[in-house]
Model the fold of this input.
Amino acid sequence: MKLKDEISGKYVEIGNYSPNLKIYVCGPTVYDKPHLGHLRTYVAYDAMVKYMRHRGRSVFYLQNITDIDDKIINRALETGQDPLALSRKYTLDYMDAMKYAGVDSVNYYAMATHHIKDIIKQIKRLEKKGFTYTLPDGVYFRVWMLKNYGRLKHQSPEEQKTGARAKVAELKEDQRDFVLWKFKKEGEPSWRSPWGEGRPGWHIEDTAISLSFFGSRFDLHGAGRDLLFPHNEAELSIMTALKNSENVCPAWSYTGMLKINGEKMSKSLNNFIPVDDVMQKYSREEVRYAFLSSLYPTDLDFSWNMLEESRKNISYIRRSYEKLEKHSQKGASVDVGSYRELLYRNMDDDFNTRIAISILMELASEIMKANSLDSESANEAKKLFDDANTFLGIIPEQKEKGIPEQSVESLLKLRELLRKKKLYPESDAIREALKNAGIIMEDGGNGTEWRRE
RNA sequence: GGAUAGGUGGCAGAGAGGUGAUGCGUGGGACUGCAGAUCCCAUUUACUAGGGUUCAAAUCCCUACCUAUCCUCCA
Done:
């Protein structure tokens, strides 16, 4: 099982050090509603982790929630709310969004505000090693002490000139230095520390959490690509400084940005689609199918049509899945083993969910084309769909709610009688009524079949 | 300007030297009371442009053009 490490640009085997994998993924800053861009990233890591588990790895998947940050405070000030109440509200929204998308592989969500002690401990250790200095507004990290700052960003110190948005803080020793602890301002939430009342900087929140859970080594660090710099660069610096090692984590992976009309979907461009808006119209499976239909590291241009396509394809897969339940002893046999092998081979190759899905489509197509399947093939195919679904999560469960089966069967028989007497308006009325109740009737060559919507 | 990733059919989106990924859409046909679903056939010089390497290039190399992301807010 390999995955591309974006520091080296090379593929690394994951899970070779130990069968017990430790994975950390940067969570959101909860100051606004979750949007589809977040979902894209977390669905991708959800599928990866679930696939690893499916293939027998034990994974501890840790994710942080940044619930104290400038953005949260600013938003709270704008709207006259308590910052921590605001972040609590959006944390719950985020959890709802994850639940909707079927992202349930995370073992632990760590709130930054629950780890203030760890953060302070970590700053103390950095202080001892001489990596910190104090200014009137906070405690800073000394970047120049690390030769390889810029490693993740692939830029030499020469190239790290001040960017467009970089504020030049005259007092900082180096423009690249970042804040570890911010001193309290009027009306802001704060905690006690050896340096004075204040709150943590963004980057140290993540390293305090990841290292206090994982110790001196973990297997995979994931995030959206927009966090690569400065956030992950700073994380890497802190970890390097603390552990005297540049290899605390051997694999840094990134998800591509979700775009809309060719531009990144983001809060600052205000072109984002909140998860709420999609939740009403499309199912969990449809959204996952749409996202997993592209490769996780590439950008993906969102469109509503994408979700419509997903809907059709999922319906096709589900029909073929249902057909498997009607198999007979004799019939065509399908070489399910080769589908499974291809599926695993492509998932092992940097989690190619796009190919995985196309393999399932091909299997579905082969099933649909066959008049009947032998029971062994049918059982194996069913098992493959079930297995793939444990990590892809694109095949919906059959709903058993609504009108009982017996009632549907009786109405179906009644309709058959009416149709034989060519009383079509009456038979169509039954079909229409059942459709409104979530039952779809389809007349075929071998009589009428029905299914729940 | 710098770093990184790209440019593939009407559309979405894989592939990474050699047998048309997959899907959506469109056209035609089968089935059918209608609808729907399904099946069959077609959409067969698709790989930004120009050079180069090779028996063979969408894939490797060079040049140009274009796009996106980041360059201290962001998943």
